[in-house]
Amino acid sequence: MAPPADAEVVTSRRPRARRGVSLRDTGPSIALVVVFAVFAALSPGFRTLSNVQNIMDAAAVLAVVTCGVTFVLMMGSIDLSTPGIMGASAITVALLVANNRNDNDLGMLGVAVAVLLAAALGCLSGLALVALKVPSFMTTLGVSAVGLGVATLLFAGVQPNITDEMLEGWAVERTLGLSHLTWIAVACVLVGWSVQRWTRLGRYAYAIGGAEEVLGLSGVKVAPFKVGVFTMAGAFYGLAGVMVTSQLGAGLVQAGKGYDFSAITAAVVGGTLLSGGRGGVLHSAVGVLLVTVLTNGLVQVGVSPYWQGGVQGLIVVAAVAAAVIPQRRRNQVTK
Length: 335
Description:
single chain, mainly alpha, disordered N terminus
């Protein structure tokens, strides 16, 4: 019996993904090793075990956010909802676990509710995208505003400080030298990679970014998979908001400030294209480490933190330029 048309589309894309290992795939990993070696030579404090642990811990929240952003970028979309969704999740979990504002003490159930709220906001982004047919950066920017509005209403002018030992322990307690937040981030990367590698949602995210029209003509209903990707991304953002609350010991409306740009930067630096159809969770994880190592190294050698944003901006421009040069040479057009 002949395979279904949608299977033919997916399987036809696999050979191209496995055809050799290009410099674009290995480049970020090589750059990570080079950058680490340079800073290790410049600063004795950089190459200590405690600093390596600090780098891993500092990368944890960004890695979780980048897992969600990566799937959206693979579809060729842009997600700017991260700050609002993380803010809503952070305030929600702070009010549901043991805190100074009320008598709630839901523990892990409170964490689950916060992540589900974030997933619902992500779903709203996906539904708005497929229903309104407007660019993703506009719909997600609107959902970010909705999330910030929800967070502000819940905040009610009084900061909720958490007293839940379980959630506080995520940032404080360590296993094999790394905080529990870092191990949560590792688990999220593995889950993201498994979804990308073994599920139809992950394979179709690639296909949508590479050839959405062909996928649609093959009989696949693209809209549900777009909504599914944004929903999953929202869940990652929600968990990241919970992690920030654990770090700060309080819920803040601005818990996700700046993570949208940082996550997109890390994903692109790692080799995930803004145009979609290339990259993946492991690529983006390398990008997260590269950005975090660079930030830590600049501090270790005495560069002002005020320059770090500019450096990140230059890196993402260079990474995007390096990624599109082969395409532009073929097409000879500038979009």
